[in-house]
């Protein structure tokens, strides 16, 4: 939705120059920030990139955990086989 600024609102925007303008909703004291669309689009892009990086990081953590668990499982198998071999060798000794 797009709306036109009133003349007094436009004067506030003009007086602020490059900075963003905050507006307060008198009904609930919610604060809104009015900014140029180019700033909004840049901010939106940065937030999307941050979300993608977070998703990649979480995937990497899961993969690392899975690899660690698999390595530990393999180590247990190797230890079990080594123990079985040692027991068999011990049983063969007269």
Topology:
Elements: H1 7-16, E1 21-24, E2 31-34, H2 37-92
Antiparallel strand pairs: 1-2
**Pairing-aware structural class of the strands and helices?**
mainly alpha
Unreliable residue runs: none
Q: Mean pLDDT, rounded to whole units? A: 90
Number of domains: 1
Which of globular, elongated, flat, extended, rod-shaped describes the shape? rod-shaped
Order of helices and strands: HEEH
- The biggest beta sheet, please? 2 strands, antiparallel
Report the strand count: 2
Portion of residues within helices: over 70%
- In DSSP terms (H or I, runs of 4 or more residues), the helix count works out at 2
Strand order of the largest sheet: 1-2
Tell me the strand percentage band.
5-15%
Straight-line distance between termini: 91 Å
- Quaternary status: single chain
Radius of gyration, CA atoms, in whole angstroms: 32 Å
Structure characteristics:
94 residues
Structure description:
- There is one protein chain.
- The protein has two helices and two strands; from the N terminus they run H-E-E-H.
- The protein is mainly alpha-helical and 94 residues long.
- The chain has one domain.
In short:
The chain has helices at 7-16, 37-92, and strands at 21-24, 31-34. The protein is mainly α and 94 residues long.
